[in-house]
């Protein structure tokens, strides 16, 4: 994993831990199902990420970074 990818994973996991993933989703007017389908996860898994009760895997975090347009420079 490259340093930029590691920064992205860390940024997304921080958002999840702080309960800010839902805020990101709502701001972009995306549905839970849309995020789940794009991230390759179930809606219940995405819900747990949003609640901060679960942490996305590195692969899922990278997909979420892409969905939420998080860049390595901003991470």
Automatic annotation (TrEMBL):
Start and end residues of each HTH cro/C1-type domain: 21-75
Pfam family, one: HTH_31
Family matches, as SMART domains: HTH_XRE (SM00530)
Highest taxon, organism lineage: Bacteria
Signal sequence annotation: none
The name this protein goes by in its record: Helix-turn-helix domain-containing protein
Species the sequence originates in: Streptomyces phaeoluteigriseus
């Amino acid at each position: 994993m490259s340093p930029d990818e590691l920064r992205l994973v860390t940024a997304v996991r921080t958002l999840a831990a702080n309960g800010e993933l839902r805020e990101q989703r709502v701001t972009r007017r995306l549905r839970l199902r849309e995020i789940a389908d794009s991230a390759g996860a179930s809606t219940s898994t995405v819900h747990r990420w949003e609640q901060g009760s679960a942490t996305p895997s590195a692969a899922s975090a990278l997909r979420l970074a892409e969905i939420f347009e998080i860049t390595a420079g901003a991470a």
